[in-house]
């Protein structure tokens, strides 16, 4: 990842915390800022999980088996494929979005919010 993408990724929890604080009634509350940081880190965890499932290609085998089933189900399509000499379709691998940096930033911001909330309760 480039440095600009890292900066944007690192700014996401801080912006989420600020937006949550602005959306609440009490702007000067530290607890609302900590809650916003926690919620934005949880949102990043969900985005990282979706990217992990997408990058892992977990559902690709199901999709390929369905395509093969329908190709054999329709004999005309199978005959056309045999006549053209193409048995497998060409698959292009798109550049995957990295999921590890998203999960790393989410874990760090969640741990920071947990530490801040513990310090807030102790004081």
Give a concise summary.
The protein has 123 residues and is mainly α. Helix content is 77%, strand content 0%. The chain has a domain of 80 residues.
Task: Describe the structure in your own words.
- With 123 residues, this protein is mainly α.
- It contains 5 helices and no strands.
- The chain has a domain of 80 residues.
- Helix content is 77%, strand content 0%.
- Helix 2 packs antiparallel against helix 5.
- The two termini are 39 Å apart.
- The model has no long low-confidence stretch (mean pLDDT 83).
| H and E order | HHHHH
Mean pLDDT: 83
Structural class: mainly alpha
Q: What overall form do the CA principal axes indicate?
A: elongated
Strand runs, count: 0
- List the total number of helices: 5
Rg, please? 23 Å
Give the N-to-C terminal Cα separation.
Answer: 39 Å
Largest sheet: none
**Strand content range:** under 5%
Low-confidence stretches: none
- Amount of helix: over 70%
Task: Name its key features.
123 residues, mainly alpha
What is the topology?
Elements: H1 3-23, H2 30-56, H3 60-73, H4 75-84, H5 100-122
Helix pairs in contact: 1-2, 1-5, 2-5
């Amino acid at each position: 990842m480039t440095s600009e993408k890292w900066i944007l990724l690192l700014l996401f929890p801080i912006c989420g915390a600020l937006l949550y604080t602005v959306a609440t009634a009490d702007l000067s509350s530290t607890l609302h800022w900590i809650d916003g940081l926690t919620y934005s880190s949880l949102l990043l965890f969900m985005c990282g999980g979706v990217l992990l499932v997408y990058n892992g290609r977990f559902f690709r085998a199901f999709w390929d088996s369905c395509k093969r089933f329908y190709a054999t189900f329709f004999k005309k399509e199978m005959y056309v494929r045999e006549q053209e000499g193409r048995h497998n379709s060409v698959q292009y691998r798109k550049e995957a979005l990295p999921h590890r940096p998203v999960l790393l930033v989410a874990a760090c911001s969640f741990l920071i919010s947990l530490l801040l909330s513990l310090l807030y309760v102790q004081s």
